[in-house]
Amino acid sequence: MTVTELVSYEAALAGYDPVMGLEVHVELGTKTKMFCGCSTELGAEPNSQTCPTCLGLPGSLPVVNAIGIESAIKIGLALNCEIAEWCRFARKNYFYPDMPKNFQTSQYDEPIAFNGHLDVQLEDGEIFRVEIERAHMEEDTGKSTHVGGATGRIHGASHSLLDYNRAGIPLIEIVTKPITGAGERAPEVAKAYVAELRELIKALGVSEARMEMGQMRCDVNLSLMPKGSTTFGTRSETKNVNSLRSVERAARFEIQRHAAVLESGGTIVQETRHFHEEDGSTTAGRIKDNAEDYRYFPEPDLVPVAPAREWVEELRTTLPELPRLRRNRLREEWGVSEHDMQSILNAGAVELIVATIGAGAPSDQARKWWMGELARNANESGRALDELPITPEQVARVAALVASGDLNDKLARQVIEGVLAGEGDPDTVVDKRGLKVVSDEGALGTAVDEAIAGNAGIADKIRGGKVAAVGALVGAVMKATRGQADAARVKELILEKLGVSEG
């Protein structure tokens, strides 16, 4: 089905209620793999970080990564889950080229964390609770690179290359319970949930959760049920979606696609789907197996995991302030409204502002530059704020230069422009471009005298009591000084020289 065959979003929601299930895979930031001592460092030569265990060679035995278990427990606690007193690993059997063992060591019916929830805030401030089914430990697969085709996928490729460096890297899979009741806001809920989960994971320090690097990936399960029905429809599973925007787009597209199929009398196929970033569409992958098709059975080479209650409670005391609570605290400290804080959050500016304040800038100035000039630049260039080539320390330095009187806002914008263009740090840009405010009283006085002499008619009006006309003379001085004068001081000098009191 092509994009042009979709029903409208409004028509889809008029006849059906969406049901979502989100499965998020998070690569843990451990130094070694989940069941062996191989390095997890990125960028190594293909197949250089492997051993008999992660390659599944006969006679090799796995050993559980203790930091991986600790990270899983922290995630479970932060998600308000119950932590299992006893759990174990299982073998999930299926053949796939990048599975060197032909099974994945995972957890099936005995996860380490279960029955939790995460409250997420939508763009209008509404809080939506997403129920968590489970968070379980497993290992990642290797990486396939398909060569010779036009799309980079296996279809049409002439051959494939396999890199097993990633095979065995620790993963936590976080699975929601069916998400119902979101209605037309289902795609927004999906995006907000993944965003909040990403912030939580980063706050815990268990992963950088960089979606663009595959450290966090979301599978979007979606089905529709007719209005008034309580029976879930057949679901599709859009795999490995790797950005917040794409999560929202994938959910929206699948709602429209499912509705189009059902309205035309067709049947939804339970299958995986590939998401296409260029147009937000999905295409069919493979028929989706049910759990029994994976022939799960307990992993015989690993002992069960039984975290002591004392240890679990000790880990609970180490949890950081959770993101939503922290945002509420920052909102009060900064003195901004909920609407403004939501705008800051939507722009991805919270941590940038915090870091800028940490570098010495007042909170209002940090917000001003990130949400003003820098947000505009990011929007125009199609980049996220944290992708801009400027650091919080450099923004704080710009704010300091303004506070000291060395720059005014107009000049500060030019300095930021120079930093973004790669001309150096703020002080270097100021020197190279000659952007400091003209503060020499003699130079300012000369410029003011010239402006008065060149605009005698306006000067006479000001002397006659029309003080508002002073703006024209201020503008003339600012033009003569290339915007590098202090406008307030220029106004004072003009009125002094004309013998006029502003009051």
TrEMBL record:
Residues 351-498 form the Asn/Gln amidotransferase domain. It comes from the Bacteria. Pfam families: GatB_N, GatB_Yqey. One of its GO terms (biological process) is glutaminyl-tRNAGln biosynthesis via transamidation. SMART domains: GatB_Yqey. One of its GO terms (molecular function) is ATP binding. Belongs to the GatB/GatE family. GatB subfamily. Allows the formation of correctly charged Asn-tRNA(Asn) or Gln-tRNA(Gln) through the transamidation of misacylated Asp-tRNA(Asn) or Glu-tRNA(Gln) in organisms which lack either or both of asparaginyl-tRNA or glutaminyl-tRNA synthetases. The reaction takes place in the presence of glutamine and ATP through an activated phospho-Asp-tRNA(Asn) or phospho-Glu-tRNA(Gln). Heterotrimer of A, B and C subunits. This is Aspartyl/glutamyl-tRNA(Asn/Gln) amidotransferase subunit B. The gene is gatB.
